[in-house]
Amino acid sequence: MCGLAGIIHRVGIADIGSEMTSMLQSMKHRGPDSSGFAVYGVPRDGELVMRFKVAEQEDLATGFDIQRQMRERRAEVDARIESLGGKIVEAEQVTEYALRYRLEYDGDLRGFADYLEDIEDVEVLSIGEGLELIKDLGDANRVADRYGLKGFNGTHAIGHTRMATESDVDIRSAHPYWAYPFRDISVVHNGQLTNYWKSRREMEHRGHRFMTNCDSELIAVYLAERQAAGQGLDVAMRASIDDLDGVFTYIVATANSLGMDKDLMAAKPMVLYEGDDVIALASEEVAIRSIFPAEIDTVDPYEGEVRVWHT
Amino acid sequence: MAHLEREQKSADGGMHAERLAGRTQQVFFSPVEDENFVSPGSFQVDVEKRAELDAGEMDTTAINLKIRELMGDGRGTIVVKNPLAKHSLGVGILSRLQLHFEGSLGYFGVGMIDGPNVRISGRVGWSCAENMMAGTVLIEKNAGSCFGAAIRGGDLVCKGDVGARTGIDMKGGTIIVGGRTGAFSGFMMQRGRMVVLGDAGKNLGDSMYDGTIYVGGAIASLGVDAVPAEMTERDVAWLERKLAVYGVEAPTGVATMQKVVAGQKLWNYDNLEPTEKKLVL
Q1: Which one, of A184, A203, A185, A187, lies nearest residue A195 by Cα?
Q2: Is B61 exposed, middle or buried (0-12, 13-18, 19+ CB in 10 A)?
């Protein structure tokens, strides 16, 4: 089924970590498999934040020598970053397999990410000035506690509770997806894409990278491709309504905006609250009400609607 | 078997243009005035006895059980405060009741009801009043998709806009929408009436078997086998009376509304099954 949530503060910053956790936890019934957050913190001048993982959760249970392998993979990541002229400002081991680095790097991001992912079983979850992508198995409270998300201050965030329907229950198949390799773009999706395999083959021929068998990843790659061609986000989102086949409602976030897109059948839900300074949207109103308990005016966007908001 | 000598007030009044006359259309009880239309074991309530309920901290099951408890106590008017858009509130109420929700409901609000008069001062999510048998539901703000899915009777009124697939598979009753409605409204409609005072989204009445849709605004497109029909004086008179009951108005007057019915080209009820056609007669 899946549950989506998005929140954007147009003025100032707020504890979006707690807000998103609350929204996602109230929709746990829509997706108990895994939870994912794309939170946009306050950027630091000249720095990028990279979130990556060096193993899947299931590897820890089955891998014989996994601890040593993870250490080696991480060491290799450090070495490769240095060899490309990057500088690690701060390295944080968030969980056994998930890491957060603050970097200084101003070279080609595609080459950078490709080189790091060339290390076996390393996946770069996100790179961005503000974007930090956290996803793991378990419900929102559990993931938020493990990754210390409550108290994360920022301008906007999107999140996802997953009920896996098309692919495995693992971290790589969880949402959000980063529009690799474009900094700060992330996507969450509710629905099924029926032309996934066909589109994926075409895009792989054009050189795009797919890390999973999850159909939702297609949206991230699609938007990334359009971004590379210089197309504006809302233009790309409108085009996706025709190019993507299947049922979908998705939310996309960039460094300073949040967008929502619905398919032509209005098959997957979205409830929208537009306040004066805050925009909140989610698959169900209970999610929005968990942070706005007073009566508010909410609407369901119609089929084929595309909306974009900016900070 | 079926008791066929009975008063057919509504049919004589011309309110049923349906041609479907299958077995389920026969009535197996005698609907005279003095016979109870009450489900066995249902609550006897007094509308003068009022109760209030703060649902803020309660979960869905607790709220619904509390409503039943209050009805068991004879409370005929129940006001539920702070529903906080929870799902499946007020479902399965099978007797008369004045039920007011001060706030918004989530999905499946007041589903499967048979008799209560419900007022919701906020908005509702998806599938409100699905499978309603009888009663009235009035929503002050807007509603989500699948509004009034598969209802069999009663009046379901939303003063604001509603989403897609409104009245999907309706089997009777009346849906009134004060604003616009989304795509595939009246999809596979079987009986009943849907009145949309605003615009209707694409594929209106797609694959409808029967029933009638009235639209006051623009229709984006008609669905498969949904065809326009002439408004009659009876239609106009009924619409004026009905809309007045709920305090809503057609934007350019009732007589200018468009009427949509089934083209009946999808009907295959008398056709032989493909394998039956093989029989050499």
Answers
A1: A203
A2: exposed
For A289, the closest chain B residue by CA position comes to: B84
Q: How many CB atoms lie within 10 A of CB A136?
A: 22
DSSP string, A146-166: HHT-TT--EEEEEEEEE--SS
Chain B residue at shortest CA distance from A283: B125
Rounded to whole angstroms, the Cα distance separating A52 from A23 reads 24
- In the 3-class helix/strand/coil scheme, how is chain B assigned residue by residue? CCCCCCCCHHHHCCCCCCCCCCHHHCCCCCCCCCCCCCCCCCCCCEEEEEEEEECCCCCHHHHHHHHHHHHHCCEEEEEEECCCCCCCCCCCCCCCCEEEEECCCCCCCCCCCEEEEEEECCCCCCCCCCCCCEEEEEECCCCCCCCCCCCCCCEEEECCCCCCCCCCCCEEEEEEECCCECCCCCCCCCEEEEEECCCECCCECCCCCCCEEEECCCECCECCCEEEECCCHHHHHHHHHHHHHHCCCCCCCHHHCEEEEECCCCCCCCCCCCCHHHCCC
Model confidence pLDDT, tens digit, residues A130-162: 999 999 999 999 999 999 999 999 999 999 999
- B103 at A interface, C-beta within 8 A: yes
Chain B residues near residue A285 by CB distance under 8 angstroms: 85, 104, 106, 125
Q: How far is B98 from chain A (nearest CA, A)?
A: 22
DSSP for A31-43, please give it. --SEEEEEEEEPP
Q: Are strands A298-299 and A271-274 parallel, antiparallel or unpaired?
A: antiparallel
* Token pair of B213 as six digits: 């849709």
Q: Given the cut 0.95, state whether the ipTM is greater than it.
A: no
Note the pTM of the prediction, 2 decimals.
0.88
pLDDT in tens, A193-232: 999 999 999 999 999 989 888 999 999 999 988 988 999 8
Q: Kind and range of the H or E element at A85? A: none
Instruction: Give which of A181, A173, A101 is closest to A135, Cα–Cα.
Output: A173
